Amino acid sequence: MNQGGWSCPHDIEGVCDIIKQECDPGHKGCVLYGKVKFSSEESPSNEAFEKRMERKMREMLKRKE
Fold first, then answer.
1. Rounded distance, CA 7 to CA 35, Å?
2. What torsion, rounded to 10 degrees, do the Cα atoms 7, 8, 10, 15 define?
3. Domain coordinates of the chain in residue numbers?
Protein backbone atom coordinates (compact mmCIF):
# COMPACT_ATOMS: atom_id res chain seq x y z
CA MET A 1 0.00 0.00 0.00
CA ASN A 2 2.46 2.61 -1.12
CA GLN A 3 1.08 6.14 -1.34
CA GLY A 4 2.85 9.36 -2.15
CA GLY A 5 6.41 9.84 -3.34
CA TRP A 6 8.13 7.53 -0.88
CA SER A 7 8.74 3.83 -1.44
CA CYS A 8 9.82 1.42 1.26
CA PRO A 9 12.70 -0.95 0.53
CA HIS A 10 10.89 -3.57 2.66
CA ASP A 11 7.74 -3.48 0.47
CA ILE A 12 7.89 -6.52 -1.79
CA GLU A 13 4.85 -6.50 -4.07
CA GLY A 14 2.66 -5.01 -1.33
CA VAL A 15 3.93 -7.28 1.45
CA CYS A 16 6.27 -6.09 4.19
CA ASP A 17 9.43 -8.20 4.15
CA ILE A 18 9.92 -7.54 7.88
CA ILE A 19 6.56 -8.53 9.38
CA LYS A 20 5.34 -10.67 6.46
CA GLN A 21 1.99 -8.86 6.26
CA GLU A 22 0.39 -6.40 3.88
CA CYS A 23 2.45 -3.21 3.72
CA ASP A 24 0.72 -0.59 5.85
CA PRO A 25 3.15 2.28 6.54
CA GLY A 26 3.20 3.43 10.13
CA HIS A 27 1.60 0.41 11.71
CA LYS A 28 3.24 -1.53 14.52
CA GLY A 29 6.18 -3.50 13.16
CA CYS A 30 6.88 -0.97 10.41
CA VAL A 31 10.32 0.68 10.54
CA LEU A 32 8.52 4.06 10.54
CA TYR A 33 6.30 3.26 13.56
CA GLY A 34 6.71 6.01 16.15
CA LYS A 35 9.44 7.75 14.18
CA VAL A 36 7.30 9.96 11.96
CA LYS A 37 3.90 11.61 12.14
CA PHE A 38 1.49 10.71 9.36
CA SER A 39 -1.14 13.05 7.91
CA SER A 40 -3.81 10.42 8.55
CA GLU A 41 -5.03 10.95 12.11
CA GLU A 42 -5.91 7.25 12.34
CA SER A 43 -2.30 6.11 11.94
CA PRO A 44 -1.18 4.23 15.07
CA SER A 45 2.27 5.70 14.52
CA ASN A 46 1.06 9.17 15.49
CA GLU A 47 0.38 8.33 19.14
CA ALA A 48 3.69 6.47 19.42
CA PHE A 49 5.43 9.43 17.76
CA GLU A 50 3.92 11.91 20.24
CA LYS A 51 4.97 9.74 23.21
CA ARG A 52 8.50 9.45 21.78
CA MET A 53 8.76 13.23 21.34
CA GLU A 54 7.48 13.86 24.89
CA ARG A 55 10.07 11.43 26.28
CA LYS A 56 12.86 13.10 24.30
CA MET A 57 11.75 16.52 25.50
CA ARG A 58 11.79 15.38 29.15
CA GLU A 59 15.29 13.94 28.65
CA MET A 60 16.52 17.19 27.12
CA LEU A 61 15.07 19.24 29.97
CA LYS A 62 16.70 16.97 32.56
CA ARG A 63 20.10 17.45 30.91
CA LYS A 64 19.75 21.23 31.13
CA GLU A 65 19.15 21.12 34.90
1. 16
2. -60
3. 11-64
